[in-house]
Write a structure and sequence with these properties.
One of its GO terms (molecular function) is protein-lysine N-methyltransferase activity. Belongs to the class I-like SAM-binding methyltransferase superfamily. EFM4 family. Its EC number is 2.1.1.-. It comes from Ignelater luminosus (Cucubano). It is an enzyme of class 2 (transferase). The structure is a single chain. The protein contains seven helices and nine strands. It has a seven-stranded mixed β-sheet with strand order 3-2-1-4-5-9-6, sandwiched between helices. It has a two-stranded antiparallel ribbon with strand order 7-8. Helix 1 (about 15-30) runs parallel beside helix 4 (about 90-105). The chain has one domain: Vaccinia Virus protein VP39 (Rossmann fold, 3-Layer(aba) Sandwich). The chain is α/β, with parallel strands linked by helices. The mean pLDDT is about 90.
């Protein structure tokens, strides 16, 4: 399958996210508004339900580009305790820590950039991504950034580790093509569908990949 790069956009810049999370920190401190839930609460609920059915509670989990951390709050409330969140925006991590404290959950948060920082070799059982790969796909050097992301996620996962990735920019088939060298498809999390012109499609793709062991 061939596909075109999406093109550069402000959502692919750290400046955009720093500005957004500065505003959301203020809103949370003043009104206890946690801010936007990326892709909506329904998608987050579907991911959590899938995790509850398919992933052991003791698994070591990291959310890449955790934002306000609400996905990890939901997972903590579902019984997962070995949770980590990383984001390259320091303001996002500040917000996530404050939201976590407010919700009474216990999660480790770190300021890290998946494209630049070492996340640990074979450290995680599950990597979660809800929109971060989308943002990386909108950077000025998207192809190289996507390849670096795939390599780094592969390195930080344990053997047979899982990547749960949710995207509104790429279809399931496009994701499978982009990840096929390092990952194999494990499952697809159903997402809401729409029908237009007699064709059925999804607004959001949510795919679970398993790490390929490369000798």
């Amino acid at each position: 399958m061939s596909f075109e790069e999406l093109g550069e956009c402000e959502l692919g810049t750290q400046e955009y996210w720093d500005k957004l999370y500065k505003t959301e920190i203020s809103n949370f401190r003043n009104h206890k508004d946690v801010g936007e839930v990326w892709f909506g609460e329904d998608i987050a609920d579907r991911i959590v339900r899938w995790m509850n059915k398919n992933v052991p509670k003791e698994s070591v989990i990291v959310d890449l580009g955790c934002g306000n951390g609400m996905l990890l709050v939901d997972l903590f409330n579902g019984g997962f305790k070995n949770l980590n969140g990383i984001d390259y925006s320091e303001d996002a991590v500040v917000l996530a820590k404050e939201v976590s404290d407010h919700c009474g959950t216990s999660t480790e948060y770190f300021v890290k950039d998946i494209l630049k920082d070492n996340l640990g070799e074979e450290h995680y059982d599950v990597v979660l991504d809800k929109g971060t790969y989308d943002a990386i796909s909108l950077t000025s050097d998207a192809r190289h950034s996507r390849e670096t992301y795939i390599d780094n996620v592969h390195k930080c996962l344990k053997d047979d580790g899982l990547l749960v990735i949710t995207s509104c920019n790429w279809t399931k088939d496009e994701l499978c093509t982009q990840f096929e060298d390092k990952f194999k498809i494990f499952d697809v999390i159903p997402t809401p569908q729409f029908k237009f012109g007699g064709k059925i499609g999804s607004v959001v793709s949510s795919v679970v990949f398993k790490k390929n062991i490369i000798l």
